[in-house]
Amino acid sequence: MRMIGAASLFAMGMLASAPAQAQWVPPFKGNDTGGIIAYGLASQADVRAMAIDHCAGYGKVVKFLGVQAYEGGYISFACRWVPYGRADRPLRVYY
């Protein structure tokens, strides 16, 4: 019992002394419900076309939700079903 207590105390001490790390996030990340694009990527690429292409891959249309217009911010978007009354699928963008 004493050995388990000493080992757990040692493990807690090692965890407390380890430096905190920020995880790396890719500049474009999404799934079938939407995604985020790094704001820094907006000056390098057509983020609107990237989001349209991403959502069209799931048969949906894009709706932009918000922009954090500073370095380290994100552009967020949602993928929605094609609006009522439209029989055709959205066009896919090719680069």
Low-confidence runs: none
Spatial strand arrangement across the major sheet: 1-2-4-3
- Summarize the amount of helix as a percent range: 25-40%
What sort of overall outline do the alpha carbons produce when their principal axes are compared? Answer: elongated
Structural class: alpha+beta
User: Which strand-content bin applies to the residues?
Assistant: 25-35%
Radius of gyration: 22 Å
User: What is the β-strand count?
Assistant: 4
Count of DSSP helices?
A: 2
Spell out the helices and strands N to C: HEEHEE
Number of domains: 1
- Mean pLDDT figure: 80
N-C termini distance: 64 Å
In terms of quaternary structure, what is this?
single chain
Largest sheet composition: 4 strands, antiparallel
